[in-house]
Amino acid sequence: MDLENTLASHLSQISPPNMALAESAAKREASLAKPPGSLGRLEGLAIQLAAIQSSSKPRHENKLMVVCAADHGVVEEGVSPYPQSVTRQQIENFSKGGGAITTLCATAGVRVILLDVGVNFDFKDKPGVINKKIAFGTKNLAKGPAMTRDEAIQSVLTGIEVVLAQPHLDLVAAGEMGIGNTTPSSCICCVYTGLSPEAATGKGSGLDNDRIAHKVSVVRKALDLNKPNPVDPIDVLAKVGGLEIGAMTGVYLGAAIRRAGIVIDGFIAAAAATLAEKLSPGISRYFIAGHRSQEPAHQAFLDHLRLKPLLDLNMWLGEGSGAAIAMFVAQCAVNHFNEMRTLEEASIDDPVEV
Q1: Does a structural domain hold residue 215?
Q2: Residues marked as catalytic
């Protein structure tokens, strides 16, 4: 089976959340020993997870973060204040538990997989890093397509297959590490939200105003040169995307196949989530927006996907950091739903009509 058909076969396995269970979960939520609506977003989140997992008792115990890593040829344009070598160095750091994402996931009880799909370095079967390398980074998207169509599909399939190989999944998120990856994310943002390169391009990992202006020019050049086709998300990914963005897209698709709640992180994660929605329309019903990033164009992605973020903590690190924190919020949502007594069970009177 060729790559296109393999992807189509996976996509055919995605089914909508169970709305009948959503209705019964809403009835239970309304009967719990509290004023209706008093737990705010936790209530809707519990109902959503019941529908996603097709279970009258939603679960949170099996939480997974797949940190997808790859390098980008566009860094030669000076779009990041950090050298490309930092991708490798951070993956080494993550593998020893020393990164922000690994620390936050440990705190929230989230298992971490480090997935190399395109780092410009050979980890030589390093413990803790899954080697699924497709290429040693993308090509410079300001000079031509970032990758071939087959490489783009392979990156998506890799994310899907890594998730499908896991034994039990309740909540899944995709993090990332790839110096330069806000530039392809800005390109994807322009393609799907209609923002101009100026509005879609931010400081990334800390650019000053002059270098942001240069980055804007790189985004515009990439779009003008490559002309990505918005009705073909694989074309968009291949021409102006990244290998880790493709793998993150696959992680979301695989999680939907497994009927797990999908927690979306920040700007780069939202670019991948948008590609996933274009590949599998309706998959956004599985999405939980973990937080609102300080990267300005993140809100445009959220609006496009019709998602409201759970948190706004002024974060812009990436890596999956906001999603890791949001997974703990999801745990609270599930536990209140499963463990609270109803008004009847607690022998508490219903409100008095006046």
Answers
A1: yes
A2: 319
